[in-house]
Structures are given as C-alpha cells and as structure tokens.
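Go through this pair.

…
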Amino acid sequence: MFIGQYQHSLDDKGRLTIPSAFRYSLGEGAYISQGFDRNLMVMNTAYFMMVYERLNAMNITDPDARLLRRMMLSTAFQVEVDKAGRILVPPKSREFLSLSNEAMIVGQGEYFEIWTPADWTLQMDNIQNTAANTQRFAMLDLSAHK
C-alpha cells in the first residue's frame, strides 16, 4: 500500500528516488501516466493492468471514454526500479509537470502520485480548507459500520 508523502530530488538524468516503503509494492517495474490534477500517477504492473482492462472494456463510441483512454494510455510509460531504488521519469512526463529538481511523492493507496512541490502546496491548501471540506465530504460515509 502506498501511503504518506515524501519530498525527493531528481538527478540530472531525471531519475527519482522512490521511498523505500514504496519499493516493495512496485516490484520489478511500474507504469507512469498523466494524472487527473496536473500530477503523475505511478502504478505497479498489476494495478496498471487492472486499469487497462477497465479502460479496454469501455464503449469506444462514447467520446468521454475515448478521451479517458487517450489521457491514460497515450501518456503512459513503463519504467523500471533500478538497484538504487530510482525510476526514470520520462522527459515528456517531466515536461507535462514542469518538474525540475524536486518532487513530492504522495501515496494514494493502490498507486502514488508525483507532484511539483509548488503544486502540492496548493493542493494541501485545498485539502486543509475545513469549511469547504464540510460540504465536499458530507455525503461520504467513512463509518466502520454499514
């Protein structure tokens, strides 16, 4: 499971050190794809294949389904974790984020996200808006009983 947030540096070649707590869950490799909020999603192979199967099952005559497939699949790259625990963030993915030498790695359970520190700060400001959260999350039920 991918949880927590970590700030790590990218080297000159675009390699990003993955937190040691995340490496085991990635196994031998992973897939990077454009995320939904000006971020990148990093998924282990099993999760990416599940997402792919769901995308592949969507009706290709639905314009939103085609758009989602294009967003997820055309921006996806397969990456490997090297012996130093790093992945190479592809140049197109770094360009999309305007990612330079620092990145935030943010766990999301089944996958993790990569953000620029500035964009993650804005996201945290949004997350910590308690007045807005009261309305946003009013319909969600996180109680232990059903």
Summary: The chain has a mean pLDDT of 93. Residues 5-117 form a domain with the Chemotaxis protein chec fold (CATH 3.40.1550.20). The two ends are 24 Å apart (CA to CA). Residues 45-57 form the longest helix (13 residues).
